[in-house]
Amino acid sequence: MITLSGLSKSFGSNHVLRDIDLSIDQGESLVIIGGSGTGKSVLLKCILGLIEADTGSVCIDGTELTPKTRAAQMARFGMLFQGGALFDSLTVWQNVAFRLMRGPGRLPKAQARDIALAKLARVGLGPEVADKMPAQLSGGMQKRVSLARAIAAEPEIIFFDEPTTGLDPIMSGVINSLIHEVVTEMGATAVTITHDMSSVRAIASRVAMLHAGRIQWQGCVAKMDKCDDPFVSQFISGRADGPIEAVR
Amino acid sequence: MTFIAAIGRHFLEVLAAIGRVGLFGLEATSHILRPPIYGRELALALVHIGWLSLPVVGLTALFTGGALALQITAGGARFNAEAVVPQIVAIGMVRELGPVLVGLMIAARVTSSIAAEIATMKVTEQIDALVTLSTHPMKYLIAPRIFAAMLVVPVLVGVGDIIGVMGGYLVATGPLGFSSTGYLRSTIDFLTLSDVASSLAKGAVFGYIAATMGCYAGMTSGRGAQGVGRATKGSVEAAAVLILAANFLLTGVFFSR
Ligand SMILES: Nc1ncnc2c1ncn2[C@@H]1O[C@H](COP(=O)(O)OP(=O)(O)OP(=O)(O)O)[C@@H](O)[C@H]1O
Ligand SMILES: [Mg+2]
Predict the structure, then answer these.
(1) In what helix (H) or strand (E) does residue B147 lie, and over which residues does it extend?
(2) If 0-12 CB within 10 Å is exposed, 13-18 middle and 19+ buried, where does residue A54 land?
(3) Measured between CB atoms, which of A75, A85, A102 is closest to B128?
(4) Do B134 and A83 touch (CB under 8 A)?
(5) Mean pLDDT of A183-188
(6) What is the DSSP letter of B111?
(7) In angstroms, how far is CA B169 from the centroid of its own chain?
(8) Which of A21, A141, B29, B146 yields a CA-CA distance of 20 to 30 A from A176?
(9) How many angstroms separate the CA atoms of B250 and B243, rounded?
């Protein structure tokens, strides 16, 4: 269980997160929605400690994550970055197997490669891409390699930052069901950021909406369509007029 | 008044920057000494910094040694040139020009490429990705590069010294018509072990400076392509100036008695 309390982050005069309280239960699939630039990616990075929050704390199973304790906890996390963030000096399979081949429990090369190939297959990529460099792949393929890397070591807690952006509808469906499986079969906890409402319905057990640096609304998916929050209903229907100013 | 304030502010900024670089260098050094050591990264850095720099280092030293021999003959022919030229070429190359030229070449070639590579990794979130994959960027990216530079730049300096002396030899025994055995004899008789040791020690220091400045600029780069460009430019300037300043200090330490 991950608990965020009073998390705030500003970049200069840009107050991105204002006093966020959120808890994520073990084994649930939380989806975070919200307009572009509202700080969804920053929120995930604050939890991982990649960006240091100004105030507030992040606790995992009751222990607070600090720069000292974080390194030990990092093995439990997997993260898919919005931009992919593949290592461009390593081949595709070396990217996917990066964690498997390093650290205390590292696997021999051949075994790590087999696992990497299996994970690539799960994101719809064949063995022919394994020895390519990331720069030789299309944007959507890079995103899927990055997804394979995030789940390769079967972490307990996985953050997906826009896993289906830039993918065709069929591949989006494949990725949605992959995320669903990761949660239901491996028992992982997933936090997914997405703008794709069909993704939300496919993978979410709970939804939180971020707006103006605060959690505007949270609740289970079933309640999302019927909720009377004007921000949420504008967001899911995609109307330009409403309380969320589309043109600033 | 505002003018003085501006100068003061600049001065404080420079001091703060020196402090940050110093802390960064200390942290990086502490990671060189503690496991895990990433052997593959170290080997790649050795090849990149050492092996691939050989052509440029060799050519620079060759031409400089040759030019030095010509110059000294022109100026020193009135005395006994055959004895003076080899000695001054040897001293000049080994004590000063060899290490400085190699250091500057490494700043141009290695500092810039390290800064650009690491800055790009930062901008594209690859450094963040390393952290989420339980790999310390200091250990995986920085320590191998700095360690490799400290190991291999002295070797490059040694090679540069030898090729520089060779350049002088070629010019002296060719166009200038000196005797070949006499030239080599004077060179060997005149150079001392401490000259060579100081040359290599300078190489290690310059390698450390060049790699550290590249890594620091990369890790602190701003966002976007502009950030990468600034980081690269700034790192080469800083490394070159620091190498020259360090050379001055080391020459003072080694040769003033
Ligand atoms: N490293 C940074 N330095 C300065 N400002 C930043 C930084 N990272 C993010 N921001 C700012 O924080 C705000 C939120 O950014 P974030 O990337 O979290 O948006 P997002 O909700 O993920 O948007 P999108 O859906 O478009 O990905 C933006 O205004 C952005 O300019
Ligand atoms: Mg984002």
Answers:
(1) helix B143-173
(2) middle
(3) A85
(4) no
(5) 85
(6) I
(7) 25
(8) A21
(9) 10
